């Protein structure tokens, strides 16, 4: 069961930095997982409503929405990065 | 020699450059990013993705070392709450000659802005707001993917 991490305003809106998830078998991609997680609470829905504003990582590697989550241990959702 | 650090503590530029200056190259280039005062910003809070950040920074440094045949590269990025004028980030490179050191230094800071998981939250008038990513940063990073224009 993968751990889901949230950062920056995604975390603020969802109200938690980390949770575990046991998605159904037909949820196989990052984008499908986000859509499934959006059903968890009003905060999830608000944070994940517009996936063009969301970036993701699978096992600490940047990943597109169509990337597979098969076998993933850690999946993170966050805004576009703003370091430097 | 690659050195990567993600830390809360302030850093000394002189101390960061000294190991690069000792590598025997003829050129050390460096860039320092500071908390800018525009729009009445009082403080900046830097968040990151522990674990992924260090790996992402090391990968960028390895790419720069390979592409410009660097002798060394250093990346230091601070996290936590930073006040106006404080140093946020240092990237530095060491090469036999200045052109490779300068180009690799620009590459590192441009790519760091789009390829390392940091997020800035700025405080103005006591109110916090997450900083939006800028299209100009994407463009700056993307130019390194294209054949470099000859001048």
Automatic annotation (TrEMBL), chain B:
CDD domains (UniProt xref): MoaE
Sorted UniProt keywords: Molybdenum cofactor biosynthesis
Keyword Transmembrane helix in annotation: no
GO molecular function: molybdopterin synthase activity
EC number: 2.8.1.12
Pfam families per record: MoaE
Known catalytic reactions: 2 [molybdopterin-synthase sulfur-carrier protein]-C-terminal-Gly-aminoethanethioate + cyclic pyranopterin phosphate + H2O = molybdopterin + 2 [molybdopterin-synthase sulfur-carrier protein]-C-terminal Gly-Gly + 2 H(+)
Superkingdom to which the source organism belongs: Bacteria
Biochemical pathway: Cofactor biosynthesis; molybdopterin biosynthesis
Enzyme class: transferase
Family statement drawn from the similarity comment of this UniProt entry: Belongs to the MoaE family.
PANTHER family: MOLYBDOPTERIN SYNTHASE RELATED
Subunit relationships: Heterotetramer of 2 MoaD subunits and 2 MoaE subunits. Also stable as homodimer. The enzyme changes between these two forms during catalysis.
Protein name: Molybdopterin synthase catalytic subunit
